[in-house]
Specification:
Layout: H1 2-8, H2 12-22, H3 25-47, H4 53-67, H5 78-102, H6 104-113, H7 120-132, H8 135-146, H9 151-158, H10 162-182, H11 190-199, H12 208-223, H13 228-233, H14 235-239, H15 243-253, H16 255-334, H17 347-350, E1 357-359, E2 368-370, H18 381-387, H19 391-414, E3 416-418, E4 433-439, H20 443-461, H21 463-472, H22 474-479, H23 482-485, E5 488-495, E6 501-508, E7 517-521, H24 532-544
Antiparallel strand pairs: 1-2, 3-4, 4-5, 5-6, 6-7
Amino acid sequence: MGALRSRMEPNDPELLRCYVRNQDEDAFSELVRRHIDLVYATAVRSLGGPSAASDVTQEVFLSLARKAAWLGAEGSLAGWLHRAAVLAARQRVRTEARRQRRDQVAALAHAMDSPEPESLPLNQDLDEALLELDDGDRRILVLRFLEQRSLREVGACLRIGEDAAQKRVAKALLRLSHRLARRGYAVASAAGLAASIQAAVIPAPPGLAAAVAGHTFHAAAAAGWLSWPLAASLVTPFMALTHVQTAAFCLVTAALPLGYQWHARAAVRAEQQQLESDFQQARTRFHEVDFRRAHQQRRVESVERSLEWARKDLALRDQVATIATASQGTAARYGWLDQSPYVRVPKAVLEEVHFLAAIEGRGNGMPAATDPVSPDGTVSDSLADTLNLSATDRAAVRESFAAMSTQFRQLETEHVRVVPEGPPREFNVGNQDSATLVLSAFPEAGSQLASDLRAQMTRALGEDKAAVVWTQSKEVFRSTFREFGALEEIYTVALDERGGLSVWNGLRRPEERRFESWGNSSGHQQLGAYPEPVRSYFQRWIDERPSPAPAPRPSPQP
């Protein structure tokens, strides 16, 4: 990707030549955009904070605009810009120190606003150690880490391969670690040093690149630095100047651009103030619109609440009228008359009363009491008369029970488990030949069955009557449907030596070991009364048992 970008975009020397020869502002802006983060981050590290980093960045690119004619042969500007930023920051620090010595109050304010002392020495030592390296090592480290370019891009800038660039980066990191070790820093590894350098990179503020490029280009145009013949004629004498002379020349030539720069900054500040004023006005208008919207919303909510209260009041009136009409037709039925079989009973009491149904069938001629709701959903006459259930209502209850029972038996067939270790000790089977089967619990699916059954009964009977029928069915739900699969049921069948069949069964919760209820039937029992999974399994078990050997006949006595 880096090689492709290098083929599509001009490199730094090409941009410099385009800038100097053609006075191309776009070429200079591209140079500023590429290297603004490097210069700004170096200034921040050297100064110990961002307070004057923008000014130093401006000075470095002004220096680049002045010296562009002599930098066209450089393979990369990164090293030159890094060194220029460090030197400019040094000068700024020395100037600030002299000013602080003249003004103690300003020195105290500077001390209060200075950054934490832990971050300043490391950043300064990093840049100072980079300056101690030769140009090749410093350039490749600046490209790789401070400008965060890939190895392929570094190789393209230096006209070497990617592998060669990686080796040179490793050697340069080793030399930099030696420089830092002399300054008292312990570097763990090359990777750690690389991470430390990358952590020192600070991106320039948004808009700084555009401001620096525009101001610098116009300052260079005003000073006449963009004239290539003039720059060429000054090459020889300028190269012969000493450092002091060069600094004096730079100060003189920078006087006019600095004046233009201050003028441009004033214009920018005025524009910024105008934008802030427009923003405040827009925000005020937004708050006014938002307040009106919230007021309208509250009015709508108030109207909706009034409508809801009116609907509730109308529904209550309809309900009262319906009850009054029904009471007029049933007053004779529920009045306290000695000759009437009906009395008025509170609804709360109905859930506490157990409506037993009396049927004939005991051997002693006495009627036997059964549950008010049978396992197939048949409602007893006494409960039906109490709730005034019609034949259609009772048929709907039976249909609901039938649908639930079918689904329950299917789930029960899917949750059968054979117990190879034998029957529970509570059954006290002894040494008889036995087999044990468990109908496991399925609480989640059973809970859904219960919800569906309750919903069907409510739709058919209404909420009040369905609640009474549900309460009267609890014993059936427990004994026949194991509380809708919340309980597990254990069955044990034993054969004695005479072929007699005994059956034990008990209910318990899966998380508990004790039985909530259990019992047994001895003698010649039949399996037809038990659920299908139990009946089928035990019948196969009995059929597979060997037939008992016939008892030996007694021998005749002499």
